[in-house]
Amino acid sequence: QYGLEKPRGYNVSFHYNPHVEYHHFGSSHPMKPWRLTLTKQLVLAYGLEYTMDLYEPRPATMDELQVFHDRDYLSFLSQVTPQNAKPDDPAYLSFGFGGESNDCPVFDGLWNYVSIYSGASMSAAHNLNNKQSDIAINWSGGLHHAKKNLASGFCYINDIVLAIQLLLTQNQRVLYIDIDVHHGDGVEAAFESSDRVFTLSYHKFGIDRNGYPFFPGTGNINEMGPTDPANRGKGHSLNIPIDDGIDDEQYKWLFKTVTGAVIEKYNPTAIVLQSGADSLGGDRLGRFNLNIKAHGFCVETVKSYGRPLLLIGGGGYTPRNVARTWCHETAVCVGTELHNELPSHIPYIQAFQGAENGGGILYPDLHNTKRHDNLNTQDNLHKLVTQALENLRYLEG
Ligand code: TV1
Ligand code: CA
Ligand code: ZN
Fold first, then answer.
1. How many angstroms separate the CA atoms of 388 and 27, rounded?
2. For residues 62-67, average pLDDT
């Protein structure tokens, strides 16, 4: 009804199983699957569904998840419920559940939830493999902290690793890029011994006033994977540690310069972009000060290289802005511009209205919600880029 037609050139597919929305981590937990409902509502309200192929993927099976995860871990994950959980059981704690932080709670429907978001990433990878899509999107995935036998940082199953493993059946080199405010440690670790996957993460890194490192505490510029020269994966990770409050112009310059250099050097045949929206200004857990269009600039930049692209979600803890950003980035993929005034017929329109919720527009100024002073100087960022480009020289020989 907005006159959008399927643009020629890019075939975009949208992989979404609405059952993911009905899961709750617990009332005070910052991860809200409900943000995916808001995202889907915006995408529909702007008529973007007419510009893409829509898929409702089935949940991943136990066998499919076992390609990366340990059997013992999966069998625990598939059986544990809030009713039968024993929080002091050594197995429970050793698999990363509960604990003091309770980052990874056991909640009703947990197994269903993880199978759904994983199935969607695999479905997206499948579409790229058989060339049905140039860009495949799964906003419910991007759970980059999960390890093969460990739940970590709100992530239980690493859907990204599973999707990359599928892409590797058809691609010689896959580039993984991660703009979530947290370090993509689980994906980096999974492929640390491979030269067929290069991982690049931009994230907040540093120790806070209270003495705690920003989660997960890894990802300094000198962490480039294994140091053993005999290891094939040597030099195939690049980490870009950033301080609080980085602004649009700084981030865009940093992203374009470093990502461009990596793509040109590594020459991937497919790219996976984890587009965590907790790098936006005003995010409940984040520290950066990015606006929606600066975040979307990363998607535009990656898209411009014209390689098969898997675009996935991740963090994002201020749901209205997560929805705005992922709707905008969906439009970037299909190559259309959206009007700033939100269509008035959106269910949950109240979530976007009022000065404190962004005034009923798609692109509110998130600098207004600034809570973190910019600690990144031009000098620091130039040194960081110099070091990053220096690290890339390991790829040469
Ligand atoms: C339950 C209820 C859990 C309220 C967790 C914030 C909560 C957090 C909660 C929280 C919270 C973290 C740590 C501390 C490590 C722990 C999806 C030393 C208000 C990809 C994961 C961040 C980010 C984990 C995930 C972090 C992603 N921050 N309230 N927990 N211990 N955990 O710092 O990268 O976005 O905060
Ligand atoms: Ca990151
Ligand atoms: Zn995050």
1. 41
2. 98
Residue 323 lies in a domain: yes
Say if 24 falls within a structural domain.
yes
Domain with 57 in it: what CATH number? 3.40.800.20
Highest mean pLDDT among 89-93, 106-110, 226-230: 106-110
Domain holding 223, by residue range, is 12-396
- Whether residue 368 is contained in a domain is answered as yes
How wide is the angle at C-alpha 145 spanned by C-alphas 169 and 306, nearest 5°? Answer: 45
Q: What is the pLDDT of residue 370?
A: 66
78 assigned to some structural domain = yes
Write the CA distances from 191 to 73, 180, 225, 266, 284, integer angstroms: 19, 19, 9, 15, 30
ipTM of the complex: 0.99
Running DSSP on this structure, what letter comes out for residue 366? G
| 308-322: pLDDT as tens digits | 999 999 999 999 999
Ligand 1 center to residue 30 CA distance, Å? 8
Alpha carbons 264 and 260: distance in angstroms, whole number = 6
Distance (angstroms) between ligand 1 centre and the Cα of 182 equals: 10
pLDDT at 1 (0 to 100): 45
How many structural domains is the chain composed of? Answer: 1
Closest alpha carbon to 129 in 174, 159, 161: 174
Name every residue whose Cβ is closer than 8 Å to that of residue 353 and which is 6 or more positions away in sequence: 359, 360
Residues with CB under 6 A from ligand 1: 28-30, 101-103, 143-145, 153-155, 180, 182, 215, 276, 278, 285, 314-315
- Catalytic status, residue 183: yes
